[in-house]
Each structure stands twice: as C-alpha cells, then as structure tokens.
Specification:
The chain is globular and about 50 Å long. The strands form two sheets. A four-stranded antiparallel beta sheet has the order 1-2-3-4, with helices on both faces. Strands 5-6 form a two-stranded antiparallel sheet. The chain is built from eight helices and six strands, in the order ααααββββααααββ. The N terminus is likely disordered. By secondary structure, it is of the alpha+beta class. The protein is 39% helix and 12% strand.
C-alpha cells in the first residue's frame, strides 16, 4: 500500500492544490459580513454593526460632545450601559428661567442606523413638546429621521436646550400646555414657573444611585464650593494674576546625568 504523504512530497503539483486561491473582492466582503455579530445587526438598512462597532460609535459621539462644549447642558454615558446617557440642562432666561431639568438619552441598540434617540425627563415638565405621561420630548420635531454621519447626539442635546427658549407648536405632545401658550401667555408663564419650582424641590432628593455616573446635586457648602466659585468669578485674568504673584511662568528640566528636576523662570 502506497503512502499518500510520500506522494505529496514527491509531487510538486499536489502541494499547490492544497492552498486555496486568494478570494476576489466580492468573496472577501461576503466573508467579512459573516464575521459581524448578528445579535446586534441593524434591522434597518444594509449596514450591520457588531458590539465593538457600536461601542466605538458611541465613544466617538461622546468625544464630539466634549469638543462642542455646549453651554448650560451636561451629559455623560451611564457606567452600566453605553446606550443610556444621563444629562441635565440649565435654563437661564425665558419662561423656564432658573430651571434645572434632569433627563436621559436612550439610544437604540442598532445605532447609528436606527431611529432617533429618545430624550426622557426624570419628572413631568409642563411644556408643549413634552409628553405629560411618559415625560418624553418630541425629538421628531427636530429630527424627522436619524441620518448616520450627519446627525449626532450633541445636536440632539442642543435641540433639547433650545425647546425651552423657542417653543414650537407645530406638533405638540401636551395639548393643554400648547393651548395655554397660544391663548393665555400669562397663565402659561405661571405654570412654567411652578414647574421650575417643583424641579428645584426634587433636585437634591436623589442622593444614592446604583450608577456612579448619575448626576446628583448637593446644597451649597462654603468650605467645599466657595473656593471653586471664587475662581470661576475671577476667570482667566485672575488665574494669570495668580501666576504672576507666584513668580510668573517657569520652565522645568532634568539635568544630564541626574534625576533631579530643576525649575527656572522663563
């Protein structure tokens, strides 16, 4: 009986037949599609994102948010799920002046090809664009369809802040608030102020939360918050004066052959 291995060793053509040819581009794309996690595959459209792609997309979105430096609004992803972001918006003028509203951004698991992320307030908000039962903001008024690589979460947050300054009655979720806004502005403003007061009373109630990224508030304490407040009031000019009092700008270096750090004035 002949040894098949010896035949392979003696026949140069037999080894070449064992190695498959390099697949063409269509075959490579088909193979790559099979490697994507089907559990997180997109239900809408032809694009699919595995769990790693989803996490990367959300990390990129948060980095974009940090670069925008939106005034009066803060938002951070949950420590337990990147599909939930905790946010708070501070209103500085208008009918909701001095309002502090806490909310969640709920992102679909097929992001960024899914529907528009939801913005849900923690408590009722008397506003034409906020559902009085579910506390959900009517985001479809600003985003009819979520477009990948065009729409971003920071834009959604900007829209959330804007609805408190510029009220749109084109498709209200709270008919009572919308009707009052049109027919009795004085009564509407009174209800809006009452809403702001209710939120202020509940703002400090949430102390312990299972998610460490949940945004909590504490009452003002002079020993803790006073120095920070003073620095914020002084601003950049105050910090520059402090540097001058401390001796101005300095340079630090390590001398050759030594681990000692030296510091000289510039």
């Amino acid at each position: 009986m002949s040894d098949p291995l010896s035949k392979m060793m003696t026949s140069p053509d037999s080894i070449s037949k064992m190695l498959p040819a390099v697949p063409d581009m269509d075959t490579q794309l088909a193979m790559a599609d099979k490697m994507i996690d089907k559990k997180t595959a997109t239900h809408k459209g032809s694009h699919s994102y595995g769990s790693y792609f989803l996490e990367y997309s959300l990390m990129a979105e948060f980095n974009l948010l940090l670069k925008q430096k939106l005034p009066g609004i803060y938002c951070i992803p949950s420590a337990m799920s990147s599909l939930t972001w905790y946010g708070v918006v501070f209103i500085r003028q208008g009918a909701y002046q001095e309002g502090v509203f806490r909310f969640q951004v709920q992102i679909p698991d097929n992001y960024p090809d899914g529907d528009v992320p939801k913005v849900v307030f923690e408590n009722p908000v008397f506003h034409p664009c906020v559902d009085p039962v579910t506390h959900t903001l009517n985001v479809k008024q600003g985003f009819h369809k979520w477009k990948r690589n065009v729409n971003h979460i920071w834009q959604l947050l900007l829209y959330t802040r804007r609805v408190f300054y510029k009220i749109d009655l084109s498709s209200p979720l709270n008919m009572e608030a919308a009707t009052m806004y049109e027919r009795d502005m004085e009564e509407f403003q009174a209800r809006a102020r009452s809403c702001v007061t209710d939120w202020k009373e509940q703002l400090y109630l949430a102390k312990d939360h299972p998610d460490p990224h949940y945004l909590t508030f504490s009452s003002f304490q002079e020993q803790i918050h006073g120095p920070v407040r003073d620095k914020m009031k002084r601003g950049a000019d105050g910090l520059n004066r402090e540097r001058e009092e401390e001796g101005g700008d300095r340079k630090s270096y390590v001398a050759t052959g030594s681990l000692t750090i030296f510091s000289d004035k510039l």
